[in-house]
Design a protein that fits this description.
Chain B: This is Glucosidase 2 subunit beta. Chain B: Pfam families: PRKCSH-like, PRKCSH_1. The structure holds two protein chains of two kinds. Chain A is α+β, with helices and mostly antiparallel strands. Chain A has three domains: 219 residues, Sandwich (Immunoglobulin-like); 340 residues, Glycosidases (TIM Barrel, Alpha-Beta Barrel), CATH 3.20.20; 178 residues, Golgi alpha-mannosidase II (Immunoglobulin-like). Chain A has 18 helices and 54 strands. In chain A, helix 7 packs parallel to helix 8, helix 10 crosses helix 12 and helix 14 runs parallel beside helix 15. The longest helix of chain A has 22 residues. Chain A is globular. Among the domains of chain B are: 98 residues, no CATH class; 164 residues, no CATH class; 100 residues, Cation-dependent Mannose-6-phosphate Receptor, Chain A, CATH 2.70.130.10. In chain B, the strands form five sheets. Chain B has an eight-stranded mixed beta sheet with strand order 9-10-11-12-13-14-16-15. In chain B, strands 1-2 form a two-stranded antiparallel sheet. In chain B, strands 3-4 form a two-stranded antiparallel ribbon. In chain B, helix 1 packs antiparallel against helix 11. The chains are: A alpha+beta, B alpha+beta. At the A-B interface, loops of A face strand 15 of B.
């Protein structure tokens, strides 16, 4: 939710001209273009050409798994240190830092789940031009070219990827400012200087000399070291920069880095979310680069490379033969240029994609994931930053949100409405207005005077609630949270050392330094039931505004010269939201003594955020284009590990037509995070407010979601185990079929359900591409069979949600939809066995308690494989070491695409056989077995004869 | 899952002192009992198929219409009947059977979920009866009050109608009277005007004579003053001492110029000084005044005439009449004019002579004519005002009569009333048929939440809601509007307000005017199905 009306008078007046000047679309002038971001401009002004860098081969050191090598820039003689690692799982890590930086440069902590395990590097060849290393797998080699410096990764004779082949390695070394010493003192140690002066006024002279001497000494050393350096030009924006009325002091001067990567033969690249743009990345030649800088963008535009709320610096390249990935581990403002060209390779005309990364500070630390299959790249990335957290089952159900449900009575009335209209829901959400004056962890004393009673009422219906807890803290000496943060000195500091303050919802606010582990530990304790008063175990958390959003800051975020301990905000910006969600999720785990799984939604995110909960696509709008965009946005996030993604159903800003609202429910029911949300100024839009017909359509969409919850849960379990996304672009499962590469209006859930939501107004039909030569797909509503590898026109009515089950799959459903997912816990399963051309099918079933870590800590779960082959359907244990008992049983088995059997027999684990009754519909080859009645956790086999 | 059949032992109407047992499958209402005959094949109620009886409530859905599983959650479209002895029977969706949540007050929906439900039917029945009783009482009293309101409204309506026609009649009379008074006024104003003009003319003549005399005296005085050598002549040299008389204003009064002023001669005697006087009197500065130019002696004298002027206005009679009707603003203007008059100048001393400027009072005859005319004017104005008042009243009554005050005028009494509700932050005010507003309790201006729009209830009860719209605009949003929901109550009170959507308010308002005729007593004691 973005700033708008509910800001109190003063603030409103102060911000009006800045924020509200354009009502209908993003005010682009609030956000920087590459040209307006000094380092991006400097870097982008460097054009491809001969690289000034040379590898000093004689400096090479090779240990078991690490190769180091110095690089020298022949223009300024500054030396860099290159580190190369071969990582387990077919990855290569390339790190480049200054050999002797003036000060340490920031290296991103906490994102990697561990120091990536390495494998030995083998030096194959070496001469004065370079060296060749073996990367172990197959015929993969890494070639280091010395002059100019360049890296090539080869697979046999084929170049997979080249680094610095376009000479765009640019490493702005840290330096001292080239003007008077006294100026330097004032700009670099000014604040300390002031303190010294005021405290030891009598000793000022002496101290001043001391400082001066130090500085001079450094200067002298520096000069000595770089004796032959050709004087580098000072360029504008190196030492300070202003944007609109905001200035960035840049006491450390220029520090940006850049490197180019070329993918010969590659035409399709994906990833680097978050952008409201197409799934397949576009070339940025002649336009703006894709920008990664977490920002609170008011009414964002579609098909635009502007930065949004989150940033995951991961890019995937894909061809029919090979998929690869780049993970650029840097948390500073980053721009990515993509250009494509056609190059002559191997005698033919082949495409090539060139990617250039530019970051404002930090080091070059890039993981090259060599695939070769898409799922390999995803596993490789998962091995670095972890997998999707396994959410409580109920979090996969439907969420009802609005800014704002006004008071307890309103919550009660909405809750009753869902029962009255027989629409299931699991979570009701409270936005910022529920607090006492935007003081998070509190309740409005008038509107929510009895939070525990309210939560108990929800709990009595097996429902849950989420309250918002944002990271900006009202500066108010009577507010406990603020007092404690201040007394513990946990706030981010401004460049002069005082607590950084900015405007946000509560007015003047401080921003806790979530990069500080002590701060995070303290924050986590605030979620304890006795700290966050009025809360119970069915209350979960939503972290909004954690880019962080600062209404009066540059680009509506924090000043880059603010300080997180010894690091500038510039260095850590894109990590802030990641840490907020991390600390919050930790808090939810701790409050239950480590028993319960947390559920935390975040708006800002970074690589690794998948470990802490769900994300949503921020403040979208009630427009058809935004509904469409929800698909590529969530697909892009899924590719980089973040599976638990959704868009505000109905659109946040503006008011959807009933048709748009219905279509959005239908699409949202098949997207991972399914939450309706609305802006404060929009009319109410609870599902029953648009007449009985629309109510029925929405009810049906939500019910479809609930019947499929077992499948969703199993997909999330697998995402948690393997990192494979829940919502997948078609090319992920059909990597060899170029027809799938750019599809972004349909998607797969797992590999077995294909969804093509209706996203056009007044639509009478959609054309879906059903992939896979030799595959068959069954319409899940009509059971009609379609051949794969064709475009299928599907006529639609308002009732239609085109969904297809892949022949060869078994999907489990619970068809007794109740008022919340928890009410369905013990309900029986129906198995949908859709056979392929070979007459076989397989699937999985995962069951646990739905909300604790016992599945992980005590192996309490059921994971079964369901296989249908040669007329026998059997359930076998995929995890013999685990134990869990469920009351759920199998009430029905539906076979799709089978001939009529003469008999069906059930054989249970004890060997007992019993006949099963069945019904058969020859028109759709649909066979329904009546009530096998076996426990869902048991071994059994059904024979069709 | 074998709890397929339930023996329903139902104690019926304990007060009647007997009990019966009615056997039927779980979840089946008594009214459908006959379709579920034990040990006979069951035909789905939609007739779609027939199944063995042991498949009724066997926790598997066989019938498309869900009728084979009235007591389990197996069918997505099934419904379960709670008998709820002691309270109202009801149907719940079968998805609520054994979901761990107590829905039926008799606990029958949770027979296999482990939920511990209390049978609350008796208590709910009691509460319900009390509530119905109370509502009935309210309705009863309210309905009586409503009748009174209707009668009162009828009376008022008639009264207003009567008053209206009476006023319309009156109005005609008043109009005639006004016309008569206009004539009288015009007749009286004619002689007044003539007399005033006469008086003015006489005074103008008189003034001219006085003026001439004064000029002559002045001339003699100046002659003496100029005749420095007292030889009975004013010479060129004597005149030259008055440089202010320089005709070309070059700062020097030359001999030739002085000669010219004297009519081309070197000197003039008193009798021939008149020609020269005419050419110098405008510029001439008395020697005594010239000596002390800084002093401003006539100040006091010149101010006096201002108030003195008032009784003797130079304005013509028409203006005078206007002046009577002038409002404050004009009066101020008038005073401002006085105040803005430039301070009297020493160059025009004669104009500041009070006695000469002041018109003498009217003679008795004229005065009498003025008084008489003024009386007719006052009478006319009075009659005109009265007529306007009556017009306003007629308009107001007509407006009131044009409102839709309900089928029997039962909402008439709300007209021109206002009802307030004070919340923690605001005071809400509902003025029916006029507007709704909100005022912050602790300072701040009132916000209009909508002006009377129309009745807005659903078709079958149009008068159960009012819509007020076009209130103060919301930032980036619609104009504020309020829906007022009316419910039956003994008193006329605003019960609550809320803002379900931004700038769309909802107000609950009770009034006897919407109370319906209560149902006959026995309906309340209907034990339902039992």
């Amino acid at each position: 939710m973005y700033m708008q009306t509910c800001v109190m008078g003063l603030l409103l007046v102060a911000l009006l001209p800045v924020l509200f000047s354009i009502a209908d679309a993003v005010d682009r002038s609030n956000f920087k273009t590459c040209d307006q971001s000094a380092f991006c401009k400097r870097q982008r002004d460097v054009k491809p050409g001969q690289s000034p860098y040379r590898a000093l081969l004689e400096t090479m050191e090779l240990s078991e798994a690490r190769l180091t090598l110095q690089l020298i820039n022949d223009n300024n003689k500054v030396r860099l240190l290159l580190e190369l690692y071969r990582l387990q799982g077919n990855m290569t890590r390339v790190r480049i830092n200054e050999l002797k930086p003036l000060r340490p440069r920031y290296e991103v902590p906490d994102v990697l789940i561990q120091e990536p395990p390495t494998e030995s590097l083998l030096l194959l060849e070496r001469d004065e031009h370079g060296m060749v290393l073996s990367l172990g797998v197959d015929d993969q080699r890494l070639i280091i070219n010395a002059r100019p410096f360049r890296l090539d990764i080869m697979d046999g004779p084929k170049v997979l990827l080249s680094l610095n082949s376009r000479g765009l390695l640019v490493f702005e070394h840290l330096r001292l400012r080239k003007d008077t010493i006294s100026h330097k003192i004032s700009s670099t140690v000014g604040s300390m200087w002031d303190k010294i002066k005021s405290v030891f006024s009598s000793k000022t002279e002496a101290d001043a000399e001391g400082v001066e001497n130090d500085v001079e000494q450094n200067e002298a050393e520096k000069v000595e070291e770089v004796e032959e350096v050709t004087e580098e030009e000072e360029q504008p924006g190196m030492w300070e920069e202003t944007f609109k009325s905001h200035s960035d002091a840049k006491p450390s001067g220029p520090s940006s880095i850049s490197l180019d990567f070329s993918f010969p033969g590659v035409d399709h690249v994906y990833g680097i979310p978050e952008h409201a743009d197409s799934l397949k990345l576009r070339t940025t030649d002649g336009g703006e680069p894709y920008r990664l800088y977490n920002l609170d963008v008011f009414q964002y535009e579609l098909y635009n490379p502007m930065a949004l709320y989150g940033a995951v610096p991961v890019l995937l390249s894909h061809t029919a033969e090979r998929t690869m990935g780049l993970f650029w581990l840097n948390a500073a403002e980053t721009w990515v240029d993509i250009s494509s060209s056609r190059a002559v390779q191997g005698g033919g005309d082949a495409p090539q994609t060139d990617v250039r990364w530019i970051s404002e500070s930090g080091i070059i630390d890039v993981f090259i994931m060599l695939g070769p299959r898409p799922t390999d790249v995803i596993s490789q990335y998962a091995s670095l930053t972890g997998t999707q957290s396994f959410p409580p089952l109920s979090a996969l159900a439907y969420h009802q949100c609005r800014w704002n449900y006004n008071d307890q009575e309103d919550v009660q009335a909405v809750d009753n409405g869902f029962d009255e209209y027989d629409i299931p829901y699991d979570f009701i959400w409270l936005d910022i207005e529920h607090t006492d004056g935007k003081r998070y962890f509190t309740w409005d004393p008038n509107k929510f005077s009895q939070p525990r009673e309210m939560l108990q009422n929800l709990k009595d219906k097996k429902r849950k609630m989420v309250t918002i807890v944002d990271p900006h803290i009202k500066v108010d000496s009577s507010y406990k949270i603020h007092k404690e943060i201040r007394s513990k000195d946990f706030y981010i500091k401004n460049k002069d050392g005082g607590d950084y303050e900015g405007w946000c919802w509560p007015g003047n606010a401080g921003y806790p330094d979530f990069t500080n582990p002590e701060m995070r530990a303290w924050w986590a304790t605030m979620f304890a039931y006795d700290q966050y008063e009025g809360t119970m175990d069915n209350l979960y958390t939503w972290n909004d505004m954690n880019e962080p959003s600062v209404f009066n800051g540059p680009e509506v975020t924090m000043h880059k010269d603010a300080l997180h301990g010894g690091w500038e905000h510039r260095d850590v910006h894109n990590l802030y939201g990641f840490y907020v969600q991390m600390a919050t999720a930790q808090g939810l785990i701790q409050r239950s003594g480590g028993v319960e799984r947390p559920f935390v939604l975040t708006r800002a995110f970074f690589a690794g955020s998948q470990r802490y909960g769900a994300v949503w696509t921020g403040d979208n709008a009630a427009e058809w284009g935004h509904l469409k965009m929800s698909i590529p946005m969530c697909l892009s996030l899924g590719l980089v590990g973040i599976s638990f993604c959704g868009a505000d159903v109905g659109g946040f800003f503006k008011t959807p037509s009933p048709e748009l609202l219905v279509r959005w429910y239908q699409a949202g029911a098949y997207q991972p995070f399914f939450r309706a949300h609305a802006h404060l100024d929009t009319p109410r839009r609870e599902p029953w407010l648009f007449g009985p017909e629309n109510t029925a359509l929405i009810r049906e969409a939500v019910r479809q979601r609930y019947t499929l919850l077992p499948y969703w849960y199993q997909l999330f379990y697998n995402a948690h185990r393997t990192g494979q996304p829940v919502m997948r672009p078609l090319w992920l499962e059909y990597p060899g079929d170029p027809a799938t590469f750019a599809i972004e209006d349909e998607f797969l859930l797992g590999k077995d359900l294909l969804v093509h939501p209706v996203t056009d107004e007044g639509s009478h039909g959609v054309t879906a591409f059903l992939p896979g030569e030799g595959e068959v797909w069954y319409d899940v509503h009509t059971y009609k069979k379609h051949q794969g590898n064709l475009n299928l026109y599907i006529p639609v009515t308002m009732n239609s949600i085109p969904v297809f089950q892949r022949g060869g799959s078994i999907i489990t459903r619970k068809e007794r939809v109740r008022r919340s997912s928890s009410c369905m816990e013990d309900d029986p399963y129906t198995l949908y066995v859709a056979v392929n051309a070979q007459g076989t099918a397989e699937g999985e079933l995962y069951i646990d308690d739905g909300h604790t870590f016992n599945y992980e800590k005590q192996n309490q779960f059921i994971h079964r494989r369901l296989t249908f082959t040669e007329g026998s359907l059997s359930s076998s244990n995929l995890s013999p070491d685990s134990q869990f008992s469920t009351a759920s049983w199998v009430e029905k088995v539906i076979f799709i695409g089978v001939p009529k059997p003469s008999a069906a027999t059930l054989r249970t684990a004890d060997g007992a056989e019993s006949p099963l009754e069945f019904e058969f519909d020859p028109a759709s080859e649909l066979l329904a077995l009546r009530k096998p009645g076996v426990n869902a956790g048991a071994d059994w086999t059904i024979h069709l004869r | 899952m074998s709890c397929a059949y339930l023996l329903l032992a139902l104690s019926l109407s304990v007060c009647l002192g007997y009990a019966v047992e009615v056997q039927r499958p779980r979840g089946v209402p008594l009214s459908k009992r006959q379709f579920y005959e034990e040990n006979k094949p069951f035909t789905c109620l939609d007739g779609s198929r027939t199944i063995p009886f042991d498949r009724v409530n066997d926790d598997y859905c066989d019938c498309k219409d869900g009728s084979d599983e009235p007591g389990t959650a197996a069918c997505p479209n099934g419904s379960f009947h709670c008998t709820n002895a002691g309270y109202k029977p009801s149907f719940i969706p079968s998805s609520r059977i054994n979901d761990g949540i107590c829905d039926c007050c008799d606990t029958t929906d949770e027979y296999n979920s482990g939920a511990t439900c209390q049978n609350t039917c008796r208590e709910m029945g009691r509460q319900e009866r009390e509530l119905l009783q109370k509502q009935a009482e309210i309705a009863k009293e309210g309905f009586l009050l409503k009748q009174q309101l209707i009668n009162e409204a009828k009376r008022q309506q008639e009264e207003k109608q009567g008053k209206l026609s009476e006023m319309q009649t009156n109005r005609k009379t008043m109009e005639d009277k006004l016309e008569a008074l206009r004539t009288v006024k015009e007749v009286a104003e004619q002689p007044e005007k003539e007399a005033k003009e006469r008086h003015l003319k006489a005074w103008e003549d008189q003034k001219a004579i006085i003026h001439a005399e004064k000029d002559k005296a002045k001339m003699a005085e100046v002659f003496l003053e100029l005749d420095d050598d007292e030889d009975g002549y004013v010479s060129v040299a004597e005149l030259q001492s008055h440089s202010e008389l320089d005709p070309d204003s070059d700062g020097a009064l030359t001999e030739v110029e002085a000669q010219g002023l004297l009519g081309g001669v070197d000197k003039v005697d008193a009798s021939s000084f008149e020609t020269a006087w005419v050419s110098i009197k405008e510029k001439y500065i008395s020697e005594s005044q010239a000596d002390s130019a800084a002093v401003d002696p006539p100040a006091e004298e010149t101010r006096q005439p201002v108030p003195d002027n008032e009784p003797y206005p130079e304005d013509d009679p028409v203006d005078e009449e206007d002046e009577n009707e002038d409002d404050d603003e004009d009066e101020e203007d008038y005073r401002d004019e006085d105040g803005d008059k430039p301070p009297p100048s020493v160059h025009t001393p004669e104009k500041s002579e009070p006695d000469e400027d002041a018109m003498p009072p009217y003679d008795a005859h004229t005065k009498a004519l003025i008084d008489a005319a003024q009386k007719t004017r006052d009478d006319f104005d009075e009659a005109e005002r009265a007529l306007r008042e009556v017009d306003d009243q007629i308009k107001s009554i007509e407006k009131e009569l044009s409102f839709d005050f309900g089928p029997s005028g039962e909402f008439t009494h709300l007209y021109s009333q206002c009802y307030e509700l004070s919340t923690s932050e605001y005071v809400y005010k509902l003025c029916p048929f006029n507007r709704v507003s909100q005022k912050p309790k602790y300072g701040g201006s009132e916000t209009n939440l909508g002006s009377w729009g129309s009745w807005a209830g659903p078709e079958d009860s149009l008068y159960s809601a009012m819509k007020y719209d076009h209130g103060t605009g919301c930032w980036q949003g619609p104009n504020r509007s309020t829906t007022v929901k009316l419910t039956c109550g003994k008193e006329t009170v605003v019960m609550s307000t809320s803002e379900p959507s931004r700038c769309e308010y909802l107000m609950e308002f009770t009034t006897p005017a919407v109370c319906q005729e209560p149902l006959p007593d026995h309906v309340l004691h209907d034990p339902g199905e039992l």
